[in-house]
Amino acid sequence: MMGAVSIRELALRAVKDALSGYGSPAANVFRSKLNTITQADLPCYDITPDEEKLKVGGEWGDRLTDTRTLTVIVRSIIDAATQEGEDTSQSSSAPVDDSGLDPFYVFAVNALTGDDANLNGAVLDVVEVSSKTVFQPGGRDFIGLETTFEIEFATKRGDPTQKG
């Protein structure tokens, strides 16, 4: 039997929906599938939740709600071999042009923090925290951009399925 769904889970589903939305540069959007992504899955986003922090007493110090901040890593992943600037005749340590990641970065930031981004009303705020480019060695010709976001939402004290 399926129980009620937490606001945390609703927020993560809304992130996935937003990154899958109209105009997305990604062919696929996955949730915590980083280690099993193949060339056939590219280009894609992979969403991984990280630490969740709890502020007891809610945003305004009340005792009925709790404010939660969930760190979410959004990885934009593309096929490095298709990017300009890579010389495939050199070793795998050849420099790769990471500019192909920019449309993914722009779309993700707009989708999650832009004026029209409300993540289905599940959250209070979304803030971009950091980004870093990641190259995947070992025969997997991926290049990725890890963008970290903090998603703030409120729940009723003692019931993570109810908005606070």
Overall average residue pLDDT: 85
If you compute it from the alpha carbons, what radius of gyration comes out, rounded to the nearest whole angstrom? 18 Å
Report the helical percentage. 10-25%
Strand tally: 6
What's the architecture, going by CATH? Answer: 2-Layer Sandwich
Biggest β-sheet strands, sense, barrel: 6 strands, mixed
Put simply, the count of helices is: 2
Order of helices and strands: HEEEHEEE
What is the number of domains?
A: 1
Low-confidence stretches: 86-92
Q: Structural class of the secondary structure composition?
A: alpha+beta
The dominant shape is elongated
- CATH fold type: Alpha-Beta Plaits
Short account of what is shown:
This protein is α+β, with helices and mostly antiparallel strands. The chain contains two helices and six strands; from the N terminus they run αβββαβββ.
Description:
With 164 residues, the protein is an alpha+beta fold. It has one domain (7-163): 2-Layer Sandwich (Alpha-Beta Plaits), CATH 3.30.70. It contains two helices and six strands; from the N terminus they run αβββαβββ. It has helices spanning 7-19, 102-113, and strands at residues 28-31, 44-56, 65-79, 125-136, 142-156, 159-163. Strands 1, 2, 3, 4, 5 and 6 form a six-stranded mixed beta sheet that branches. 29% of the residues are buried. The model is unreliable at 86-92 (pLDDT under 50).
